[in-house]
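Hi C.,

You asked whether I'd gotten around to modeling the 370-residue construct. I have! Everything is below, sequence then structure, no commentary in between.
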Amino acid sequence: MEGLKAVLALEDGSVWVGKGFGRPKRVVGEVVFNTGMVGYTEALTDPSYKGQILVMTYPLIGNYGVPSYSLVDGFGLPLHFESLGIKVSGLVVYELCERPSHHLSVRSLGEWMYDEGVPGISGIDTRELTKRLREKGVMMGALEVSEDPSVDSLLAELKASKRYEEQKFVEQVTVKGPEVLGDGIPIALIDCGVKLGIVRSLLERGFKVIRLPYNVGLDELMAYRPKGVLISNGPGNPELLKETVELVAQLMDEGIPILGICLGNQLLALASGAKTYKLKYGHRGQNKPCVELESGRSYVTSQNHGYAVDKATLGKGFKVWWINADDKTVEGIRHESKPFMAVQYHPEASPGPYDTLFIFDLFREVVMKA
């Protein structure tokens, strides 16, 4: 698709004009930025980005192309993607590499996005755009790729669109019905938009993963006789997931070991009676420093979230386990006497560092003792 133009309009009235790539279309979503230097195939397929237009701050994107979905690990999971299919609504880059070089590449980033119906804009000042999002906070935006995009029409559609925090995106990325993977210690996975790296990390530790929809009932979940429960990551406002919060509260009454990751951290906190709030521009990247308070050690973490737990509202028995070294927000909670714990970052590290993979080992130890 040669010669396409693109326009990105933000709710503050700012307009960015660049070159279009991917599929010609118009989309509306929350505009957020990710500071990662690599891992665009993993980022674009991360279900937590559902409903969002992603800005990559690293200036050159697409240089190693896109591998095949058919490249899988020993569990049959795609090696280079966090789900099957692109989940972002649109992509914003400074420079798009149209002639990638990598022995595993089967198509360019632009070709992949065209094939999956996702528009992109390149050639704009992503540094200035990121500064605007940091200063004013993440904003709703509209992106159009076409031969002649209309700024006025784009701004009008943006003004009429529903806000990100009002939409229940988890419904679009959860598993449709029960799925069982692996063999071993049975673990129920409440799928709010789980990254495949999390599934892989569980399978590698000898768990049988029973993947269930976000709104599964307690009786159905317990019928699988799980030894523990993992609450996954996912997109959107955690306070909209009232049925999941209720389920987690019921699971805590059962006393079953629980591990929450990202959105799962917020849902565990809400089930304890805490409150959550929206961050100004979120934490999205691969080098976010977090401190584990019990040891005082700092770890490099991979993150993708726009909401956080209000530590002043944590329920009885819960304590802050991890904090963000930059802004001191809650990055993990833990119950003082019961087997409930959660982290706000992504310990599975795909893409990102391997510093915090031990969280899965810790969870396994807790499950084995229960």
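If it helps when you're writing up: The chain has a mean pLDDT of 97.

Thanks,
B.
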